[in-house]
C-alpha cells in the first residue's frame, strides 16, 4: 500500500511541476518566440505554432527532468515560493493598495492590509528558514534521481 501511495504522490508531483513550468517559464517562452516566430505571419499559422509547440515542450521537459533529478527540488521550490510567491501574492498587493488608495489609518481596510502584510512577512521568514534547513538535510543524503 505504501508503494502505491508513494507512486501517486510522485505522479501528482510531476503534474504540479508541469503546471509550474507552464506558468513560470512564460518569460523564457516569450524570448523563444521573439527569436523563432515570424511576426509577419499569423500567430496561429503552422510557421509560428510549430516552433512554439516544440520549444515550450522542450523547456517543460528540461524543467521536469531537473526536478526529477534533485530529490530536494520541492524544497528549492518552497524556498522560491517563500521569496517570490508569498511577497507577490500577499505582501505587495496590500502595501500597494495602502500606498495607492491611501485609506484612513482608522479604517479597517488599512489595518487588515497591514496585518496581512506583516503576517505574510513572518511566513516568508519562517518558510525561507525551513526550506533552507530542509535543503541542507536532504543534500546530505543526495542521490541523483533518488526515490525518497
From TrEMBL:
This protein's record includes keyword Hydrolase: no
Amino acid transporter transmembrane domain mapped to chain residues: 8-129
One cellular component (GO) term of this entry: membrane
Subcellular location: Membrane
Entry keywords, A to Z: Amino-acid transport, Membrane, Transmembrane, Transmembrane helix, Transport
Biological processes, Gene Ontology terms: amino acid transport
Superkingdom, natural source: Eukaryota
Transmembrane segments: 53-70, 76-96, 108-130
Record InterPro entries: AA_transpt_TM (IPR013057)
Alphabetical list of PANTHER family matching this protein: OS05G0424000 PROTEIN-RELATED (PTHR48017)
Protein's recorded name: Amino acid transporter transmembrane domain-containing protein
Origin species: Gossypium lobatum
Amino acid at each position: 500500500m505504501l508503494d502505491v501511495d508513494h507512486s501517486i504522490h510522485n505522479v501528482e508531483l510531476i503534474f504540479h511541476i508541469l503546471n509550474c513550468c507552464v506558468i513560470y517559464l512564460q518569460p523564457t517562452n516569450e524570448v523563444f518566440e521573439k527569436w523563432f516566430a515570424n511576426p509577419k505571419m499569423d500567430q496561429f499559422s503552422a510557421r509560428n505554432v510549430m516552433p512554439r509547440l516544440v520549444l515550450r515542450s522542450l523547456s517543460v521537459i528540461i524543467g521536469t527532468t531537473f526536478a526529477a533529478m534533485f530529490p530536494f527540488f520541492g524544497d528549492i521550490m518552497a524556498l522560491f515560493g517563500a521569496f517570490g510567491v508569498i511577497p507577490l501574492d500577499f505582501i505587495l498587493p496590500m502595501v500597494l493598495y495602502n500606498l495607492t488608495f491611501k485609506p484612513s489609518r482608522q479604517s479597517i481596510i488599512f489595518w487588515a492590509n497591514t496585518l496581512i502584510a506583516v503576517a505574510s512577512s513572518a511566513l516568508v521568514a519562517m518558510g525561507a528558514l525551513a526550506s533552507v534547513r530542509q535543503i541542507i538535510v536532504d543534500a546530505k543524503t543526495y542521490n541523483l534521481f533518488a526515490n525518497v
